[in-house]
Request: fold
Amino acid sequence: MVPLSNYLVLSAIIFSLGAYGVLARRNAVLILMSVELMLNAVSLNFIAFAAYLDPTKVTGAIFAIFVITVAAAEVGLALAIVIRLFRNRATSNVDEAATLKW
Amino acid sequence: MATEVLWWIFAAAIVALSAGVVFSRSVIHAAIFLIGSLGGVGAMYVFLNVEFLALVQFLIYGGAVTVLILLALMLTRMGASGTPEKLNGAQAPFGILVGGGLMAILIGVAVSTNWPKNVSDKPFAISIQTISNRLFLDYGVPFIIASALLLVALVGAIILARQEEGE
Reply:
């Protein structure tokens, strides 16, 4: 079977790709998708640790359940904000939503 | 042995699909790649013997979240305008710098750390019974708070996205 560090390296790669996406993209929905990638990498990390190191208390698996719950709520709210932004500004580009920038 | 080969195939697929999400030039392609990537992570949960979370992953991420994202993409597209919009900002090179540095640091730490010697070389099976006992007995209060959070987020999303009078 594959050792624990394989899962950690895989999750590190997904997390870094997600971080790049958050930094580089301009479209709000694409940024949100990159955030989902990062959340998934974190969940994978938690569950790998739970399955390898903590089989009786499974704290990592519980944590992953809460991460998934909060991610679902976050996606719903963020997409509502994107739709509202699009309705007011006719764009989903975060660079153009700069009213606070003078 | 066969499991290991399968694991590597799935890991390569996840990395390729995740790269597709952040490097793709089309928004819709990125969303499709995201579905594949999330499903691949669900398969990883199967490899870790946590079937319940794999099921949750497929249902919530593979189903609900990606459908929401596709719906938002559909609602926020500018129609059939001629030039494809530029998806990356001017800061993208710095993103490569930060993402690459982060990846190097994280992989270096994960590989070089000495994990405790009693770590088994294969994952334990986490039964759905263990998860439910922990979730409902020991983490009851966070569970209830999470349900309240979901309700508030639901109401908030409806209020934010609602068409107001006179708009």
